[in-house]
Amino acid sequence: MSYKSRSTLYRLKRDGWLDDYLINVNGKDMLKFHPRGKQKLSDHIMGIIQWRPSNPIREQNLEIF
Known about the structure:
The chain is an alpha+beta fold and 65 residues long. 25% of the residues lie in helices and 12% in strands. The protein has two helices and two strands, in the order αββα. Strand 1 and strand 2 (28-31) form a beta hairpin.
């Protein structure tokens, strides 16, 4: 995933938009890309972020984080 800064992801996490995708592993929050019964993380994020031509996430598939 590509962002100019991580602040967008932290803001999505803080506001609860990523709750269904978060798991805790050894005290660290990790994101699950394909949780059972939910849409892919990349599709979820594209549905909630503001569209801008410069958003690199719009141009690529999320595979690793």
